Amino acid sequence: MKKTLTIVLGLFCICGLLSAQEAPEKAQRGGKDRSAKMAEKQLTRIKDGATKIIEKFDTDKDGTLSAAEKEGLETTIENAKEVLKMYRVYEIIKVVDTDGNLVISDEEAKEAPKKIGDFLKARRQEMGKDKQGGNREKKQQRERRPEPEPEPEEED
Ligand SMILES: [Ca+2]
Ligand SMILES: [Ca+2]
What we know:
Elements: H1 2-20, H2 24-29, H3 32-57, H4 67-96, H5 106-144
The structure holds calcium ion (2 copies).
One calcium ion (CA) is lined by residues 97, 99, 101, 103-105, 108.
């Protein structure tokens, strides 16, 4: 279970990378140099991701994935997606199901809207904190470079 979750989270990181690729206009705003750097960085991440996938699924260790090994990878991904869906619902179930028997009683259902509301609010705050932490880390990375890049302005 733990292993599956790790794989799920890993896959979601990879998905994040791929969707980040769909925003080239943001990269261009900082000039050619910046977008070239970003493209290079992204490529490195994709290559690292591919290496990690091979490490996990290359059962005969020949350095590449055969059709059968790839099928194994895809089956794992499909299972992981299912598990992730369950996990997301389970997080909410745990909030609502106070006695933990996985049956939502009328009493628990009555309390559900407030509990879910509080839970989502807390999660949003938690995610906000994570985002700030991430920015801090990026800023520190920028400060370590010899030529610091200007902070891109948010226009939304
Ligand atoms: Ca192989
Ligand atoms: Ca219950």
